[in-house]
Design brief:
Arc Repressor Mutant, subunit A, Rossmann fold, 2 domains, eight-stranded mixed β-sheet, globular, alpha/beta
């Protein structure tokens, strides 16, 4: 809260956050940022392009202009801003898929937070009738948007992660749940002597082949499909799990880590890349992301909770290495 704000003004601003989310979602779904690349347009022009009601659309766009997402001139034309540019479909790591997910499925799931608080059960499943990943599998068009959203958000972490940790100490790195392979590619580009294995569900692995084939390090990446609850590729000296463990409650997370513990070569490392929740009352995005994970059946964890999780999986946590982003690298080795 700013010093010049009253408590009531502060709460009013906080309550309006959900309204702004929905406004951005509408703009993302309609592709407003794409329509403004050639210059300002009126609400009537944008309504014709998007098949929407011009009067209602004007009110949405005016509200977005009031928080800097768009700009409105004296002729009531709307133009892009640096924030709106992030929603363009034609830029690398566009946030349009992220805005679409946040205002769509995830926004609906937040309406079940009270249910989750009362029961400990995922609100997403109550709202949509299926666990999150099953729902995504059943709706491939939404799964594609989710994959693009994760690439946009997590893709910005890859270089800081490689900056923070010496992956050159390993001969082979296995990226567990590695998705499109961009994290693994970043490691291999930095360390030419390292070999990589991309491991994910068979359907995801198949989708990754086209992305990996265009990479300059494709000749050093082997792609395998499988189920990390059943087994993972054996014998490597590093297993990377980026934003995987936070998707699951402790029993499932321990199961995944045990598979890595059983597979890792002697002296190898298991590297969990996640936000680590700090203590105290300070602001940290992980504390709110943890509620999002509550809604979908996972959780963020503190340093001590990771230490306990590793121990129960037969691992010893040896270090927590911060990066220039919000994520840290939680390092573990096979317990004696």
């Amino acid at each position: 809260m700013r010093n010049d704000q009253s408590p009531i003004e502060f709460f009013r601003q906080m309550f309006a956050g959900s309204w702004i989310t929905q406004g951005i979602w509408v703009a993302a779904e309609l592709g407003i940022a794409d329509l403004l690349t050639d210059g300002p347009r009126t609400a009537e022009e944008l309504a014709r392009k998007t098949n929407t009601h011009s009067g209602a659309l004007y009110r949405v766009l005016r509200a977005l202009a009031s928080v800097g997402v768009l700009a409105q001139d004296e002729s009531l034309r709307f133009s892009s801003t640096p924030l709106a540019e992030l929603l363009r479909s034609d830029i690398p790591n566009t946030l349009r898929p992220w805005a679409t997910m946040m205002g769509g499925e995830f926004y609906a799931a937040w309406g079940e937070l009270l249910h989750s608080a009362r029961t400990g059960e995922p609100g997403f499943e109550k709202r949509f009738g299926l666990p999150f990943f099953q729902h995504m599998t059943a709706h491939p068009e939404r799964h594609a948007i989710y994959d693009a959203a994760m690439t946009a958000i997590h893709g910005r972490e890859s270089e800081p992660i490689v900056d923070a940790y010496d992956f050159g100490a390993f001969k082979t790195v296995v990226d567990i749940g590695g998705g499109n392979g961009l994290m693994l590619a970043a490691i291999l580009k930095r360390y030419p002597a390292v070999q990589g294995v991309l491991f994910d569900l068979p359907a995801v692995a198949d989708r990754a082949r086209s992305t990996v084939s265009r990479s300059k390090v494709s000749d050093r990446i082997r792609i395998e499909g499988g189920d990390f609850f059943a087994s993972v590729p054996a014998g490597a000296d590093a297993y990377v799990l980026r934003h995987i463990i936070h998707d699951w409650e402790d029993p499932e997370a321990i199961g995944i880590l045990r598979q890595c513990r059983d597979a890792v070569a002697p002296g190898g490392k298991v590297l969990v890349i996640e936000m680590v929740v700090p203590g105290g009352n300070g602001r940290h995005f992980s504390k709110w992301l943890d509620l999002m994970m509550l809604l979908v059946g996972g959780r963020e964890r503190t340093r001590e909770e990771y230490s306990q999780l590793f121990s129960r999986a037969g691992l010893t946590m040896t270090d927590v290495i911060p990066t220039a982003t919000d994520v840290s690298i939680v390092e573990g080795v096979r317990a004696p």
